[in-house]
Amino acid sequence: MIKRFWVGGYSPDGGGTSQGIRTMGINNGVLTDLGLAHAADSPSWLTVHPTLPVLYAALEHRGEVAAYTIVGTDRLEPLGHPVPAGALVCHLALTGSHLIASCYGDGKILIYPLATDGSLGLPSLAPASRDPFAVPGHEGRASHSHQATVLRSGRIITTDLGHDSLRLWELHDGQLLLQQVIVLHKGDGPRHLVEHPSGFIYVATEHGAEVITLSPDASGEYREVARTGLGEEILPGEHFPAELSLDKYRDRLYVGVRGAQKVVVLGLKAGIPVLVGSSACEGEWPRHHLQVGDSMLVANQLSNTVEAFELDAGDGIPSVRLDSLVMESPTCITAQVAR
């Protein structure tokens, strides 16, 4: 049976060649381009509503968020007009009743109420981040929000790549209420994170080229408990981790590393990541990846391909290439049905 996915990418306004949101299929390891679902300007991040036939797109370089009605299997129709966001909106997360947008360009975090049909209301704005390393009398560094994640507790955690910090929030009446600021090392650049069912949180650092492990204490606050490198060949400042994912068996992590053109595999021992190995992504700038059963799809942004790999049954390394599909400037792959 063919499995279908939406693929977002950078269009000319973002330095790419994508025409918008495309539909892609995979069947027995073979990838197929199923056509343009809807034209859009740099829909760099996509997310699907968990119960409604609605897809949301971050139109990064327009600074807008758009909602689309999913029609059939291969087509999208606009659901209202795009709604303003912040500069370089790069990530979207769903809470069920709200959509949260993270904006790299100006650090804004916006909370959009969702109508019963999934359409977007006007957003509220979370409090701005403050640089924890600011020096009195000197200008602070720019805030770069990059991801919001809804935790199993219902709380929300956000990353700020520019301020080397994470913030933990409660969502109440459409507003984010700050609970904790987690300060990492200066220069880490936290980008994306995942939560394990055990409660550990794993954070990929774009500038530090590590995975940081956080653990909650009895009060529910998070503390750093470990740092794991991605291999001797992965160098901070030269190689830049992007997407971080937890595999379906919950016993390993995958990290796409731009510049090194690799997918790194980390095992989990007592919750702490340990390096297993890595494999070439067969392209340039692996911006995003997605596990599909016992295979993995990798979006190689700068070489304009999506690659399909078989995951090794023993160590999980995506070393066997199944297929390659030309796809213009791909930046995000999401399943048509929310998982």
TrEMBL record:
<protein>
    <submittedName>
        <fullName>Lactonase family protein</fullName>
    </submittedName>
</protein>
<dbReference type="Pfam" id="PF10282">
    <property type="entry name" value="Lactonase"/>
</dbReference>
<dbReference type="InterPro" id="IPR011044">
    <property type="entry name" value="Quino_amine_DH_bsu"/>
</dbReference>
<dbReference type="InterPro" id="IPR015943">
    <property type="entry name" value="WD40/YVTN_repeat-like_dom_sf"/>
</dbReference>
<dbReference type="InterPro" id="IPR019405">
    <property type="entry name" value="Lactonase_7-beta_prop"/>
</dbReference>
<dbReference type="InterPro" id="IPR050282">
    <property type="entry name" value="Cycloisomerase_2"/>
</dbReference>
<comment type="similarity">
    <text>Belongs to the cycloisomerase 2 family.</text>
</comment>
